[in-house]
Specification:
seven-stranded mixed β-sheet; 229 residues; 7 strands; alpha/beta
Amino acid sequence: MSDAQNDYMRVMYDERTKPLSTYPIHLATHLVKLFGLESNKHLLDVGCGRGELLAGFQAAGLKVAGADISDVAKKLLPNLDLRIVDLEKNGLPFPDDSFDIVFSKSVVEHLTQPATYLQQVFRVLRPGGLLITMTPSWEHQFRIFYADYTHCRPFTRESLTAIQMAGSFVDVHTRYFRQLPSVWRIPALVAATEIVRVSLPQFLSKHSKWIRFSKEIMLLSSARKPFTH
């Protein structure tokens, strides 16, 4: 890992400024229910970071592995099958047809060649396997997208769908996603978050998670590797 990458990882994974929270477990639990993920299935989290989501998936009964440029997830999950990999330079270090599910959150927007990454995901997924991808919605976050200087590839709902279809995935579905557990429980609250998104200024996001995540809408996409290819 380069010095610049080390510096970035130190900032992004610093527990003093970004303390561990219960949100990743809530998100993992929600995704398990949303996609009907069965216990004992094998899941790979690409760009697993500190391993917080992996801990949630593991608690839900999934068999988990991680891939990241850093080994910091080992602190939270010391027995984790974690592979250290630079996705821009190397392929995923797993055999073909290894996983039932490949998940990534806030990863593809950092890649200069996301199509190459999707080829690797296709390879390591088992036939019929599920790809779940989360990335910022450019349509909603274009004003702040490059506030993270490592962002290089924005996606819209249409482009995220298209790149997966071009990569031979099938049953591709991409939706807008709000990172608010209250909205998952009460979908009618989406209307309230939309009012907040369009009416309140961006600087208020610093003072309220409700405002921040009403504005920072994500894309949530699912796709499958076909049984025959």
